[in-house]
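User: I'm writing a tutorial on reading structure tokens. Could you give me a worked example: one chain, its sequence, then its tokens, then a sentence or two explaining what the tokens reveal?
Assistant: Sure. Here is the example chain.
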Amino acid sequence: MKFSSLLLFSVLFLILLSCKKEENTTTIIASDTPNILFIIADDMGKDATNGFSEGIIKPNTPTIDNIKNTGLSFSNFWVAPTCSPTRAATITGKYGYQTGVKWAGDVLSNSETVLQKYINDQTNNQYATAVIGKWHLAGSNTTFNPENFGIDYYAGMMSGTAQSYYNWDYTENGTTTTETEYITEKFTNLAIDWVNQQDKPWFLWLAYTAPHTPFHAPPTEMHSQGNLPPYTNSSNPIPYYMAAIETMDYQIDRLLSELSEEEKANTIIIFIGDNGTPNQVAQTPYSSRTTKGTLYEGGINCPLFVTGKGVSRTGTDTNLINTTDLFATIAQIAGSNTSEINDSKSFNSLFTSASTHREYIYSEMNDGTDDIWAIRNQKYKIIANNSGSIEMYNLEIDPYENTNLLLTSLSDEENTAKNNLEIKLNQIRN
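And here are its predicted structure tokens:
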């Protein structure tokens, strides 16, 4: 009788042990699904970012520098020249002429399938999703709730800017109130709270307004620019601009510090600038003619850094990357099998091995007056508009577009390149 009881106990113990092992195995498999942290800096060009030769005055940004230095920096990442089109291209994987969002303030149709919904449709709702921060895809409509697109949670500022980042319109659950907490800190607090509430893999789109105008003095303890007086039109804007970037860096560090080591190790971080530096603070070799709001390199060739889970390569990658490519890339990170969709092509494979991604990249703008588009390959670039004007540059020897090749006779190579670029441009737009 004693032997039978002992035998029964042993069998039950082995069954329980087996179940425990199976439970642990499931946990390990789940942890292989990475968290995705996508950070957008607003109006932060290469001349205001460490690690690039453009610009002399640089901010003190140890957190962003670490994101860059521990992963990949893409040197040929093309965005749109203003905020809304970059966001629309990322969230839909489509060029602006496909969505109608080609300038700041254009409205994204609620018929579009956005990235967050696409991911969860593809992965059986594997991810918790949130957009926190600047939306800028609803025009002047502050009552629209981005959650209507299938995003789990939205909180932030619906419009493109505010009169004061200490007194601004805050929207959550489709309701807008006045918020007086400093905007960069508020977005970070929201991000920390939301991440801490999650019990499954998460995808957080964190869109800071920094360092977008208005120029202002952020809380002194968050930056190294000293005790800045209130900004006036006669002030030098550069210290205020740098202070806003440094404050964002300070807040990103706060967010990352809240993650456990295990959670941090299972998180991939993607950091971008949404368009070039504003002309008031542009630095050499850029000018007010070639920065934000233009299709010159200072307006659309912006920082893109990727580090963390699944990224084994480091250094600089010179592949041509389109803003639209973020859609398929993030979807593939999340578990989708789709490597290409709409105008988006995943560059996820570049995180582990070097290869060629695209032959051409494309950008465009339509501010209501000028309809302009640009296309480039690794060497040559053309900018054209609806009135028939066209410019062409050799970016290998003239990266800041000082010499329009079309003002002189083209060589055979240049003429062939021009024809090929125009053919590809027509294929894209038609």
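What the tokens reveal: The radius of gyration is 24 Å. The domain at 33-360 is CATH 3.40.720.10 (Alkaline Phosphatase, subunit A).
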